[in-house]
Amino acid sequence: MSTEAVQAARRIAEEVLLPDAEAVDAAGRVPAAHLTALDDAGLTGLAAQRPSLDERVDVAAALAGGCLATAFVWAQHQGALAGALSAAGPGSRFAPDLASGRSRAGVVITAVRGPSPLRLRTADDGWTLSGSALWVTGWGIAQQLRVAAVADDDTITTALVDVGPGMRADPAPLVAANASATVTLTFDDVAVPADRFLEAVTWETWAAADAAGLAGNGALALGVAHRAAVFAESDALLDEVAAARAGLLAAGVDELPAARGACSALAVRAAAALAVHDGGRSVIRGSRADRLLREAHFLLGFGSRPAIRADLLARFGA
């Protein structure tokens, strides 16, 4: 798809993100200039434009093919903005500032699983938030976090929480996209006012929405695969990227894990092909092949689910 948003993403990827990609790969934080470029192009507020799935996939893929760390921070912000836009509660009023980039946000939405989920406990005029989340992106960039936690009534409750006192961040040294400033974040009875409430849903509703929303993350792997295929000058791989994109867009909920697996596996193969294409220079730390190989590795784990892992293990003969 080639809408204005997709064209803008491709232009920014080529002119702003890609020239910086190796430097950002070695940096501790995404440059402010990258985020400003997305603001100016209206891409920070993409979710507010109600884009189609193909448009979201193509924008995300374009950005990931320029600089994965920037795309990762951008994608988390989209998740927070989408949550504010669809909110049933008073937290929806923050959507305009998020859409413009006046406020930047991340998401904490995977810590509702397991034996020790994040907990929102009722308190005077709101809640207190406690627990730990393994992966939180944009630390030092985001002013707010869209947090999902288990409430006293066992609903999955989301709120837009200000970054501040009561939070402890432990850096997570990632194999790639380290400039996304991803941390393990601990919340120690953080006060969450009632006016930050976004929505409360049953576990079944939450799980269904999570399963249906897996396509967007696959776009990042498509972007890395496409960039590697271009650098490797491989028309065959470019054809495979187009086929994987079509499969991702066409997949039903039950088919999404396999479609996601196909995108991630293709990113690994395309990056490996680039390493062969570039020869000896590919083993230099910080080279384009080194960066894309590590990004493909990163995307094997990012946003994974048991069904996606099972698909990938089968593809890799394990």
UniProtKB/TrEMBL annotation:
<protein>
    <recommendedName>
        <fullName>Acyl-CoA dehydrogenase</fullName>
    </recommendedName>
</protein>
<dbReference type="InterPro" id="IPR037069">
    <property type="entry name" value="AcylCoA_DH/ox_N_sf"/>
</dbReference>
<dbReference type="InterPro" id="IPR046373">
    <property type="entry name" value="Acyl-CoA_Oxase/DH_mid-dom_sf"/>
</dbReference>
<dbReference type="InterPro" id="IPR009100">
    <property type="entry name" value="AcylCoA_DH/oxidase_NM_dom_sf"/>
</dbReference>
